[in-house]
Specification:
Elements (H helix, E strand, L loop, with lengths): L7 H32 L3 H6 L12 H7 L2 H34 L5 H9 L10 H11 L5 H5 L6 H13 L2 H9 L4 H12 L1 H17 L2 H6 L8 H10 L7 H30 L6
Helix pairs in contact: 1-14, 3-14, 4-8, 4-11, 4-13, 11-14, 13-14
InterPro entries: MetI-like, MetI-like_sf
Function: Part of the ABC transporter complex UgpBAEC involved in sn-glycerol-3-phosphate (G3P) import. Probably responsible for the translocation of the substrate across the membrane.
Organism: Gemmobacter lanyuensis
Length: 281
Amino acid sequence: MAPRTYRPEALNTSKGLFVLACLLAVVAMAPIAWIVGLSLKDNKALMLGTEAVFALPYTLANYVNLIGSSQVFGWFFNSLVVAVGETVGVLVLSSLAGYAFGRLEFPFRRTLFVLVLFGLAVPEQAVIIARHQMFNWLGWHNTHLGLIVPGLTSAFGVFLMTQFFRAIPKEIDEAALLDNTPPFRLFWRVMLPLTLPAQATLGIFTFLHAWNDYWWPLISATKKEMFTLTVGIASSQTNFAQSEGLGFLSAQAVFASLPVVIVYILFQRHIVTAVSGGAVK
């Protein structure tokens, strides 16, 4: 075997890409560092100028005041219920629909799948009036159910799970049928575990969307005790004169982002696996 030769130009290119990646990471992290810095500063110091964020001292007073505010924890609970409920519902419905479209044969399968994909092209704003009237008739406004149900119709989730189920080799179905495996057990015990990377990816995207959603909770939740974190923090910002200052609002933003960061850290391995196409080996 001939010895491997190293080209200086290739090494320089790698170093350049590494430096570029580091610069992009710094740019991406700058807003996060800024908001964390604001949350650690005294509100009186920030009233003199936000450049005080670069100078000592720092304080945890804003987080102490946040913990003492029961209203924020109520908003946090609402966001958690909505995000978890919507994520679970989307995973269940998208997995079932994806398995049907990807592995089963039934009349008008292609036509129905195309109709589902049309949902990707319809903006939420186009149906907001009809949805508001329907939920008002059902009495679902200012309820957790009313905040969860609209997010369960995920055309992207159905498309993603359909593609992953189609990628599973047909031999697995044939082997299971030879063992007289019932259809639901085939789906639950054989097929579904193979799509774990896709489910993790879809679950994270759904959780992020539900947690950060502002449009529908702003319309449906009119009582303050039913606000989600996004609507609650926004209401504090619009009433800034009665709030406790910029540092306290920044502490609220950091507090609201923690679940998102934790979820991503726990499941980032599955996202990488799904994106790299390693769902089915």
